[in-house]
Structures are given as structure tokens and as C-alpha cells.
Amino acid sequence: MDDLLAQLRAGLPADALITDPDVTASYAHDMASFCAAGAPAVVVLPRTVEQVQHVMRTATALRVPVVPQGARTGLSGAANATDGCIVLSLTKMDRILEISAVDRIAVVEPGVINATLSRAVAEQGLSYPPDPSSWEMCTIGGNIGTASGGLCCVKYGVTAEYVLGLDVVLADGRLMTTGRRTAKGVAGYDLTRLFVGSEGSLGIVVKAVLALRPSPPRQLVLAAEFPSAAAACDAVCRIMERGHTPSLLELMDGTTIRAVNAMAHMGLPETTEALLLAAFDTPDPAADLAAVGELCAAAGATEVVPAEDVAESELLLQARRLSLTALEAVRSATMIDDVCVPRSRLAAMLDGTAAIAEKYGLTIGVCAHAGDGNTHPVVCFDQADPDESRRARESFDEIMALGLELGGTITGEHGVGVLKKDWLARELGPVGLEMQRGIKQTFDPLGLLNPGKLF
Amino acid sequence: MDDLLAQLRAGLPADALITDPDVTASYAHDMASFCAAGAPAVVVLPRTVEQVQHVMRTATALRVPVVPQGARTGLSGAANATDGCIVLSLTKMDRILEISAVDRIAVVEPGVINATLSRAVAEQGLSYPPDPSSWEMCTIGGNIGTASGGLCCVKYGVTAEYVLGLDVVLADGRLMTTGRRTAKGVAGYDLTRLFVGSEGSLGIVVKAVLALRPSPPRQLVLAAEFPSAAAACDAVCRIMERGHTPSLLELMDGTTIRAVNAMAHMGLPETTEALLLAAFDTPDPAADLAAVGELCAAAGATEVVPAEDVAESELLLQARRLSLTALEAVRSATMIDDVCVPRSRLAAMLDGTAAIAEKYGLTIGVCAHAGDGNTHPVVCFDQADPDESRRARESFDEIMALGLELGGTITGEHGVGVLKKDWLARELGPVGLEMQRGIKQTFDPLGLLNPGKLF
């Protein structure tokens, strides 16, 4: 341990190391606080690529595990420390190095906050679409590590779609450049994409070239109330089948609506069983909303209310954004599933989740990026009650089993971390898992990078 | 050899094997006919996944290399046979297994022709955007292997963006499923994307889940004439900088225009030095074309002609599609570069290419997916003239060196194959190359899959 600190200090400024256990303990875990986490030996906050290389060379020399971290807003424990590890926080490498409107790219360090980048590019008429709920806090490096999604994905896709090239420090401290800064490129295997969603297990991202888009027009939102989740899902299917391209298509079930009302008194319709929010950022959003409103009515909506303007639209989205927080207030803790199914199976997923809630006697509220088929069943439980905690975990697992059965995936956008390791193996099967481990072995033969995550 | 045929026959119907050397010779190479190619021992045309597994198990047992092939329309020799290999042609596995408008996916076998799929999904109001020039012949499996682009990429991206999941037969005959059939998913490393563009070197794709989009409105095209390539490139930069989203933005240089005229008498403007074609498939394409026309004029266009209708638009695109064929008619052979640069460096790329043509005393016509910065300098030469052939290869290489110097890549969409192997190593650098080789080793430890390609 003394050896580790001495060697780290040899290549890092004094203020880049934290060893006070009270402080290092605060770096122990991400937002999945109920996942196991160890005590880091040291927290390192490098400011340069060379400093990151020094950390990795030291870790390799001394065989010390390294846990890379961004803002620790992840929901799967992927950034949780292991005992005696180096926590490598990239939050101080937070410079936007370049924004080009002609090339439609930004070049950034990993610690740049998503919202900071979004605002910086907006000033130049550009947009960086990926918008995870934590966008005001989370870092681009964390977004890349966890392959974050967000509300915009139904039209604009996920983080992976916007990462063109990377600079990566490998486990042994060598620097590798992947990808490109061009619009297209197919030179060799796509290592860039391999790093997106790899949860820091293959290397440390120290620079990223990101694709940008022109700023879209402001979106207008419509809210539709349904007597059942199934009817709302039917509306989603009709909307997508008819070729619409909403910029957002979100669903809140009755449990979620009532939790949001209880918390924020937003006056959402208490008796409705599902609220669908659809938005368009097209040249004529009102016309698109009118067409979608008709499809909602045909699917059984009892009320269809297009927002009059951008302000009213924002208010509706605020309710959606409050969903997780509101459900967290129901009991002392939550486990958030992230099952994504083909949207044709969305109704089966929601009905099945309701049955699971009833079976286990738990409150499970569902909000969903319905246009993507990506559901977030939120299992509410009291951590102080062992039996309720056990039932929570069992229902959490049963929801993933249901997702796989419906042709879905255990994680649409939150990642695997430590929370879903067993389930990753089930989803991939033995051959896929063997190949994934082979790739890990290629990049990190000593197994030092974020050990115990993914598989 | 007898052993090989006997073992292959044990698991394949008689009509799935071709051993007649006159016939097998015709499977020796793709469209980069000047690249070295060996004589296959046998050509196998399986119809089922099990048959592909049998071929790979046999190849592994007997240590025989396997060269997977689609329609052999590739331009880099990636499908070229090696001496004594099994050519594994996937062209008989050509069923469209599923098309879903709600889930916006198609599930296909690898031998489905791109145009066949495009037409089948169009009947359901859907679109499969990737449109390589060879779309009437090339297969989806080949598109996946080479990560094909096309004219649509500036708005709709490349093949990689549309591959959600794969079934792959590994080198040892085991079957692996990657990815998903959902809109989103981040379960483990992105093996799907790793296979796209891997030129059959990691496994045999036997099924693919593809993302579809709603059919866009028919596009309208505008043609603009410029006194120099640089002025046309300036227009491209202005168009993209102003936030336009053309569905196509193509450039033909003076050499290409005159070659097309010589071949097809299309009445293109003989004296102009660059023709830019811009298209929009937006709700009001005429308005978008008007705005883009003004930007062209501001960049120095001498003539701006929006097509009156879809028919006129098609005529303009026909000229563009004839470019390669027309340049092939200039001398006996062509080598087609595929350098992609940041679009801000497009003018430097075109001017530099013209200087290289002059230096080597060769005709090099350039057509380009200008909106992507993806240029196709076509080096025309007489294969019977050794000195001219040498100069052609040198200029072909110098164009790639220029591309790298300008921050670009040696291949935007045609791949590496055997043609650009040395250059891939230069682009990736030693660390990147080592990691790529490590991945190859993981999937194909005996080095049987398409040996001698990529690196």
C-alpha cells in the first residue's frame, strides 16, 4: 500500500491523490447503492493523458485493480469500488477540446458533463442528442462506458451512435487511438464501438470524438390518457406502424402517475391507468401531434391533450422526469429494471410486470421509453425489511426473465455492472460469454480493469 | 483433398458442392480483379445453418482455410480465394424470414440481395436505407462483411447502423447469437458491431436482424456547376454548416463528368470543373433545394438547376451512378480509392488528388459522397503497360497517404481486403493493430477464416 502510493505520487501532482478514508469511502459506489462495494485504497484524479498512463503503468506493475469512474450516476453498480483498488476518477479531465459545425463533431475529454457539452454545441446551432435523465451531472466518459440512452433515443438513438473515435489508455499504460473523426470509416474491426458500454473493463477513455447534429426545432408534446397500460401500448404500436417519427414517446403507468402526484401535486389524472407522452420536433409538430392523437383515440384513449406551446410541453416532460424520484419516495429503496422488448411485446411486458407486483405483494411502478420498448419497472421496497428486500430482488429478477422470454434484453441502457451479472450470462449464452471473456483477456490479460463487473 | 471433399459431402447435399475447376475458378475473386487470388479447392453453397456448421467443423478438423463470399461485388479483394481454400458462398441462403412494421425490423439470411430486401420492405411502407452502388446484385451478408455505404449515408448512415443482431457460425462450427431484436440494448460488449466490416475474418454470418425506417418521401435533386472542385467543396461545407440535412450530396469532378458524357451522351456541362448534386426527401424539398441553391451560388456556382420533378431527379442521379463505369472505360483498368476526410478538408483532398494525377501523368477522376467527405478517386491505367501500372499503384497509395495526413481514413466504405493491408497497419498504428490481431485470435485461433485479409 505504501509502495502503491509512493509510485503513484512519482507521476502525479499531490492534489491528484485522495487517501483520507472518509473521503475515499464517498467514491465507493454509484447510484445503485444497494449493490456491494469495497473500500478503495486511493482515489486518483488525473488531469492529463500522461497521468492516466502513469496510473495504469503503476497498477500493472503492482497488480492493483483499477475502477474507472465518471460522476457515479450509473444504476447498475458498474462504478463500484473493490477492496484495495485505485479509483480512477476522470472528472477533472473536463475540457471541450473542439467543436466544428462543418464537420459536425466535438472532441472532448471524458469528464465533460453531458449538459455542459449540450449547451456548448447548442450555441453553435448544433445538438448532442443523448440525454440520460442524469444529464445535468453525468459525464461523457460515463455515458460512453455505460452506453447511456435517454428520452431522445426513439428518434435519435443512443450514445453509441454518436461516438466516432476514442483515445484509450490500455491496462498496461499504452495509448491507443480508435475510429476516426470522419463521417464514415471502416478501417479494421470497430474497436470504438467495442469500448462503448464496456463499463471501463477494457481500457480508460481519455478523449472522444463525438458526432453532432443540427439543432432540431423545439418539440411539442401531447399527453394521452388510457384506461389500461395495454391500450397505451397498442397506441405506441399504431404510431410506429404508421411510420411516425416522434422525438419522444414515453409511458407512465397508473402507479407512477399517482406517485408523481403525491410528491409534486402536478394534477395528473389520478384515475387513469396509463399516460402516454408523444413529442415531435418536425417542421409542423402540431400536424404530427394531431395525427398521433387520432391514433391514440382509436386505441382507446379517454383524453388526448396536445400542449399549446413549448412551456406547456416542458411541464408535461417534467412529470415524466420526476417519475423515478417519486417512486423512490414510495418506500425506502428502489431497484430499477431496464428491460427492453420488441415494441410489439410491450403490452405483454407491462401486464406481466403488474402480475409480478401482485404475486410478490410489492409496489412496482413502470415508466418506459415506450417508443423503444424500453421499460423501467421500479421495484419499491423497504431495505430494513429482509423479507421485503428478498421479494424485491426476486421480482426484479423475474421481470428480467419475462423480458428475455418476450424476445427482449435485460438492459436497454443502464448496463450490467454487478447488478445483472448472472443475467448477462443467461442472455448471452455460453458461447457468447466465452467470446466476451476472450476479448477482455486480449485487452486486460491481468484482469485489473474494473474486475467483477459484467461477468 | 479427397479427404476434404469426402468429409464435406458427408453433411451436404450433392448440389451444394462445386469442384469443377473451370467453375470454381470463377469464384476466385471479387471486383478488384487486379488483386492476387488463389485457386479454391472447392466451392460450397449451403442452404442451412447446419450445413454452414458442418463446413466449418470440417475446415477446422482438416485445417483448411475458408473464404466466405456474397455476390463478390466488393472492391478490395476481401472475397478473393486463397489456394486450396473452401469458398463458402452464402448466396443460396437468401430467404427474408420476417418483416415487422411495428418493430421496424427485418430478419434475413445473408444471401438476400440488397435490392430484393429494399423492395420487399417498401411494400410495407418501410425502408432499408443502405444503398451501395451494387445494390441490385450485392447481398446483405456481403454488405455486413464489408460495412457498405452508399449514396444515402449523409442522412441515413451506413450498414453498421442497421444491424441489430446476428447469428454467426464460429470457426469451430459453434453457433453464436449476438445483439438483439429490440430498438436498444447494451448487454455486454457489442459483438454485433465487431462483425460488421470484419470481412468474414471472425465468423460466418448466417442470419441478421436489421433495423428499418419508415419510407421517406421521394427526393428531389438539384444540380450545381462550379468553376473548380474547391468551390464545390466550399458549397458542401456551407450546406452542412448551416444545418441542412440533405438525403444525398454528391460531387463529380470535371474528369468524371467528361467520362460520363463520352460514354452516355447525357449532355452534362463539358466545361464545368465540378458538379454537385444535392437532394432532399423532406416534407418540402423544393424549399430546402432553394436554400441550398443560394448557398451554392454564394460559393461560386455558375449554374444552379433544381430538378422539376422526380423523373428529372432520377436522370441526374443516373449520371452519378454511371461515374465508375464511365471512368473504367477511359483505360483498360481502374483502381478505386475510398479515402474519407473530415468534410472541412475535402477541398484539400481534391486539389491534392489533382496534383498527384499530374505528378504521375495519369487520369484520376473523382466522384465523392461529398456530404460525408468520402472521395472515390479512380485511377485509370492500362494493365498491359507495366510502367503505367506501377505509377497507378503509386498514385493510389499516395492518395491514401494524403487522406491520412488530412485527418482521414484509408477506407470510408469499401474495406481493406488485400488491397489496403499495408495501409491499415499505418492507419491503426502498432498498438491498435496488436489489439485487432488479439480479437482475431479469440474468434479464430487457427487462422482459418479468410486468411491474408485485413492484416
Automatic annotation (TrEMBL), chains A, B:
Which InterPro entries does the record match to this protein? FAD-bd_oxidored_4_C, FAD-bd_PCMH, FAD-bd_PCMH-like_sf, FAD-bd_PCMH_sub2, FAD-linked_Oxase-like_C, FAD-linked_OxidoTrans_Type4, Oxid_FAD_bind_N, Vanillyl_alc_oxidase_C-sub2
MF annotations from Gene Ontology = FAD binding; oxidoreductase activity
Q: Look up the record and name the cofactor or cofactors this protein needs.
A: FAD
Q: What is this protein called?
A: FAD-binding protein
* PANTHER family per the UniProt record, alphabetical: GLYCOLATE OXIDASE SUBUNIT GLCD
Q: Which family does it belong to?
A: Belongs to the FAD-binding oxidoreductase/transferase type 4 family.
Q: Does the keyword Oxidoreductase apply?
A: yes
- Recorded source organism is Streptomyces corynorhini
Keywords for this protein: FAD, Flavoprotein, Oxidoreductase
Any idea where the FAD-binding PCMH-type domain is?
36-215
Q: What domain of life does the UniProt record list for this protein's source?
A: Bacteria
